[in-house]
Amino acid sequence: MNPPVAERVEEIKKRLVEAVEFADFFRHFFDCTETWLLDVDSRRIEDRHVENAARLIVSKALGDKAKVRDLLLIEVTGTSLVHGSCQAGGCMATIVYFRDLEWGAMAIVRNMGGLMTFARFKPWQDAVMSSRLQ
User: Fold this and answer.
1) For position 126, what pLDDT does the model report?
2) What are the distances in angstroms from CA 95 to CA 48, 53, 107?
3) Which of 4, 47, 48, 126 is deepest in the core (most CB within 10 A)?
4) Spatial distance between the Cα atoms of 83 and 95, rounded to a whole number of angstroms
5) How far apart are the first and last CA of the chain?
6) 10 Å Cβ neighbour count for 56?
């Protein structure tokens, strides 16, 4: 039997806090959520903290002219998990954020050759970023 959603979210949250390699965090996030995240109750939300953090990360990673477009955020009902995606200066990006921790992470697919930029952020602090080939 699969663990309840709340347990799964807590595991993801723990990995975000402890992550040294952000690529490993996102790999785990997608591996462990692919079978259940789309089947849970959720709702579309707006969160200005996440939106502002996304804009700052995209600007820092891709340059001041790069814009965040089509930001879609969902909150998993009964948890603090917010997950979403956007266009980031013409690149695809995904966001994971925990409202209770006020911590999040963003991954930007820079090119089809596998270059990605990862960032972990707190909305009130500068993001910690790294780029690498996947």
Assistant:
1) 64
2) 13, 10, 7
3) 47
4) 6
5) 32
6) 17
